[in-house]
Amino acid sequence: MPLFEYECKKCGHRFTRILSSISAEKSVRCTQCQSDDIHRLISSFNSKAGGSVQSGKGCGHAGFS
Description:
Elements: E1 3-8, E2 14-18, E3 38-40
Antiparallel strand pairs: 1-2, 1-3
């Protein structure tokens, strides 16, 4: 299931929710003040289980030719 990060526009609290579908997002409320005035943040992800993200290296690095 996808993991979504949110920020409350009322109190500024950031929190994470696991949602079974995007339609379930309508019921998301701030976990601190219970406001429904929230917005979803842009999150990064890792496509390899247990892998790490390396920055500063282009596609041509690490033996790719």
